[in-house]
Amino acid sequence: MARQKSRRSRKEDLATGDLLKLQRVLGVSFHSQELLKKAVTHSSFEGGGPDAGNERLEFLGDAVLKLTCAWYFFEKHPTLAEGELSAIVGQVVSEKSLASAAARLGLSRFLMVSHSLEVTGGRELPSVLADAFEAIIGAVFLDLGLDAARDFVVDKLELDMIDAEECLKEDGFRNFKAELQELFQKERKFLPEYRVVREEGPDHDKIFTVCVYSEKTAIGHGVGKTKKEAEQAAAEDALDSILFD
Predict the structure, then answer these.
(1) Residue 88: partners with Cβ closer than 8 Å, 6 or more residues away
(2) 134, 143, 160, 179: the active-site residue
């Protein structure tokens, strides 16, 4: 019995040590260790269900993340219009951006996942990493408040925020894709769809032609040296057709 108790204590000590390491990685000292532990617990580890794992914290963290990013860019860029703010925030809060931030922190090694998810490499999945990152934001908010959550988001996503700003600067701070999507969301029940209809030229100097569709109807087309550039041109063409038809 004494040997079993000793083993159990060692496991508890290791768990506490891991949580301390995680706090150092995050640069945050939590009052509630259990809240932090919940944030890095995948629902599969607790067998699923509405209260299992970090899903509720991830839901809260998603809302806090969007608020803090909107707040940050609203203050930093007072001349940006609604559509431009929406575009820049959307890029920062994307799964790709959040998963990259989680990877930079080495968050995967702290996640608690089921054996089945572990053996399939699930702890490295972008969706799992992004959800855990959002759950941690939710935990920071609950434990330390909104200002601490904002500081955490800005600190850990600074590189992604800079990338988003540079991306929009290339387009003169006007994102036609975001504007078209915003228009569709207000007036229609579906989103525009972009398709590459032609690729010309050698690999190092390709020209892409993209069409944007409203359901099955092509409403704009654009040409560019990258797919992104062609999509922006197609969205601009579609906006011209819709707004000035």
Answers:
(1) 73, 77, 80, 164, 165, 168, 175
(2) 134
Contacts of 38 (CB under 8 A, 6+ apart): 53, 54, 57, 135, 139
Given a cut of 80, whether residue 50 has pLDDT beyond it is no
In the chain, what is the greatest distance between 2 CA atoms, to the nearest angstrom? Answer: 82
In this predicted structure, the answer to whether residue 172 has a pLDDT above a threshold of 80 is no
Can 18 be counted among the known catalytic residues? no
Does the active-site annotation cover 62?
yes
What are 221's strand-pairing partners? 211
> Is 176-244 a domain of CATH 3.30.160.20?
yes
Put simply, whether the predicted model's pTM sits higher than 0.90 gets the answer no
Judge whether 83 and 179 are in contact, CB under 8 Å. Answer: yes
Q: Amino acid identity of 215?
A: E
Choices 1.10.101.10, 1.10.1520.10, 3.40.190.10, 3.90.740.10: CATH for 13-170: 1.10.1520.10
Residue of 62, 131, 143, 231 with catalytic role: 62
> Considering Cα of 68, then 144, then 130, then 46, what sign does the dihedral take?
negative
pLDDT digits (tens, 9 = 90+) for 69-111: 999 999 998 877 777 888 889 889 988 899 999 999 999 999 9
Structure tokens at 91: 């890029």
CA contacts within 13 A on the Cβ side of 26: 28
